[in-house]
Amino acid sequence: MYEHDPEIRNDLFQEIVLQLWKSFSTFRGEAKITTWMYRIALNTAISGFRKQTRNIKTEDLREIHFNISDAGSDGLEENFQRLQWGIRQLSEIERAMVMMALEEIPYEEIAETIGITQNNVRVRMNRIREKLRKLMSM
């Protein structure tokens, strides 16, 4: 979710696994192992994202798809592409929350991972949904 380039995404995955390996000895068992893993992964992804934003971003024009002749399709692929674009427009924390929600992580665990209350997760998720609706209707 934090990277659309497959090579960089694989590098990020490896970095997350490395950080999990390094940090495993510090796991105290106060939270679920999955919550702890999400927290490590989220911190690693966000720090990697911050490092990338300092670099100039370029896009490979070969990866941009123009499906003009496919106007008769049901639009699922177009909607999916729009949703992905919309998610990339969200803040780092909003993207993390969407990612966890899409993986059907309970709000209680999202709250624990992000470090906010469960009620705040609900409010933020409603705002994120509305923001995505607006972005997708553009």
Fold and architecture overview:
The chain has about 140 residues and is mainly α. It has one domain (about 5-135). It contains six helices and no strands. It has helices at about 5-25, 35-55, 75-90, 90-100, 105-115, 120-135. Helix 2 (about 35-55) packs across helix 5 and helix 5 (about 105-115) crosses helix 6. The longest helix has 21 residues, at about 35-55. The radius of gyration is 17 Å and the shape is globular. The two termini are about 20 Å apart. Residues about 55-70 have low confidence and may be disordered.
Strand content: under 5%
Using only C-alpha atoms, the radius of gyration works out to 17 Å
**Terminal CA distance:** 21 Å
The main sheet comes to: none
Number of domains: 1
The helix-and-strand class reads mainly alpha
Q: Into which percent range does the helicity of residues fall?
A: 55-70%
- Quickly count the helices: 6
